[in-house]
Design brief:
The chain is α/β, with parallel strands linked by helices. Helix content is 38%, strand content 24%. It has one domain: 3-Layer(aba) Sandwich (Rossmann fold), CATH 3.40.50.300. It is built from nine helices and ten strands. Helix 3 packs parallel to helix 5.
Length: 239
Amino acid sequence: MKIADVHKSFGALEVLKGVSLDLMKGDVICIIGPSGSGKSTLIRCINALTPFQRGSIRVMGIEVNHPHLDKRALRHRVGMVFQQYNLFPHRTALQNVMMAPIQVLHQPRKEVEERARALMKKVRLEGKEHAYPGEMSGGQQQRVAIARSLAMNPEVMLFDEVTAALDPETVKEVLVTIKQLADEGMTCILVTHEMRFARDVADRIYFTDRGVIVEHGPPDEFFTNPKDARTRTFLGQLS
């Protein structure tokens, strides 16, 4: 994946001011920074949820800013998990996981169900297949959302502050699931405020502030020897 000089404005407010980064297959990067620094906007641009005015995002040979972009083809290859779980409340966990492969990809129901059950086991929710979202904790619902995204067999996973709405005791179970994916070689971009997790899981950390990437580097170097004053100030506020 290659992101080059991406600019995005909402009216007069410039949210991304020429952001560039490269991501190799199997890379895990964490994007951190203060609220309003453009983190979530950037990954929403990657998945074509938010259009951008200038620059280029290429994902597996697909140019996201192409006027004739096939969004369905893009989202088949790039999965995304949001802060809010967005599960269908009147569908069971298993049905939530199965919906997109059947309705969007038109895959055979039996094959999809087998994969969905395997994914429920993968996210450690075996036995919860027939539970409804309202019967599950926030952490369990978020893991269903991760399984639902994985059901499309994506090549890249985007995670947008997926633990922000969770109680502290349920955060860990979601982070364990994401770390497992990263350890298995899934290419991941995570917007997160969980610094210890970022240090543990990421190949590189990107720090954004006011629409630009201020600094990036391997976790050990980034956290122990930040070079930019803005990075040092941000990390100092967290300690």
